[in-house]
Write a structure and sequence with these properties.
With 366 residues, the chain is of the alpha/beta class. It is built from 15 helices and 10 strands. Helix 2 links the parallel strand 1 and strand 2. Helix 7 runs parallel beside helix 15.
Length: 366
């Protein structure tokens, strides 16, 4: 995500010094509970992930103590790069479980056969719309929405209503206000492209982007530049004197601005145009050839447990997929619920992703 979902929160948290798991991963012998014996290598579970994976230390240690396993986290760049490494090492994986493949890249993972099917305990509690692989080669872990965010102060000062839909972004009052990420290099950029495909279809999305380009959309390489440099509504964008009051980011970005605001504001300084969103779902899977298959299965069970699911929102700034998992108050107070996000079927993404990105690049960037 870079992925997912997650990028916004994880990057901002990192910038402010929030503790995350190291690339070497979870706990080691010195962190074990008193009285615990040294675990043999067969009791270590290696989780391969993109850089945004995080979990509260006490929650992870509780799983380790109860299961008898030690979790090692191997962070491997953004989601696309991490997945490509697992495809290259197919059959001799670097770990036991892979986390971070989303619905935009799911077909690539499944077509390359890198996962062993496993139906996680607790999968029945996952909302059925997120179970996209009926063979259970992957397990849904989280969801998030890529959406246009807006700078509330800018639109209040200008006495202009902020946009709410994809169609709104074509209106003259929003000319030269939007910055988005390159769909060829950025997960949110790709998600925004897919939102237009979902909304306008194969026959209409190119026309939409031609009009959006004529209305002054700016394209930058990635989320960090778009959100923390060009967007006027974020803490980073204010410091960088960004002059674009509309940005492609996440529905979870406003709660993050509140959580890490100094001082913490009573209200989020940014809003979400809920009619511009694309729904991402992230998955984890048991890697084929895993050295610790039983441990990998236990970890997948943990990832869909209520304990992990309720810890996840403030660690990775994504939404739970389990039916009864509760969101933290900062999400319910300052976040939004996207009732009808745009979606594109995974098989359609698999069939058309590369040609869509190539056509988009020719149309918008060149």
């Amino acid at each position: 995500m870079s992925t997912t979902k997650k990028i916004a929160g994880a990057a901002l948290a990192a910038a402010l010094g929030v503790t995350a798991l190291s690339a070497c991963g979870g706990t080691d012998a010195k962190d074990k509970p008193a009285g615990a014996s040294d675990a043999p290598k067969s009791k270590t579970i290696t989780l391969v992930s993109h850089d945004s994976f995080n979990v509260t230390d006490t929650v992870l240690k509780e799983f380790e103590q109860q299961s008898g396993y030690t979790v090692k986290v191997l962070k491997s760049g953004d989601a696309g790069a991490a997945l490509n490494q697992e495809i290259l090492t197919k059959g001799s994986p670097r770990g036991d479980v892979f986390f971070g493949v989303d619905n935009t890249l799911l077909s690539r993972a499944l077509d390359n056969g890198i996962f062993t099917p496993y139906e996680a305990k607790g999968l029945a509690e996952v909302k059925p719309e997120y179970v996209l692989d009926k063979e259970h080669r992957v397990t849904p872990v989280d969801s998030g929405d890529i959406c246009v965010n807006y700078d509330k102060a800018y639109f209040a000062d200008k006495k202009i209503a902020p946009p709410q839909t994809l169609d709104d972004l074509l209106k003259p009052e929003y000319k030269n206000l939007l910055v988005t990420e390159n769909a060829a290099t950025s997960s949110p950029g790709l998600g925004f492209l897919l939102a237009s495909v979902g909304k306008y279809g194969e026959d209409g999305w190119k026309d939409y982007w031609s009009k959006l380009k004529a209305n002054g959309v700016e394209v930058v390489d990635g989320w960090e530049q778009a959100y923390n440099e060009r967007f006027s509504g974020s803490a980073g964008g204010k410091k960088a004197k960004g002059d674009r009051p509309l940005v492609v980011s996440y529905a979870s970005s406003p709660p993050v601005e509140v959580l890490y605001g100094e001082p913490q504001p009573a209200e989020a300084p940014t809003g979400v145009a809920t009619g511009t969103c694309f729904r991402q779902v992230e998955f984890a899977g048991l890697l084929k050839g895993a050295k610790n298959e039983q441990g990998g299965k236990a970890l997948l069970d943990f990832l869909v447990s209520k304990k992990f699911q309720e810890d996840m929102p403030l660690q990775m700034f994504v939404n739970p997929v389990v039916k009864d998992a509760k969101l933290p108050e900062i999400f319910t107070k300052h976040g939004v619920v996207v009732e009808k996000p745009e979606t594109v079927a995974p098989d359609a993404i698999a069939k058309n992703r590369e040609q869509w990105v190539k056509a988009w690049s020719s149309l918008v960037v060149k």
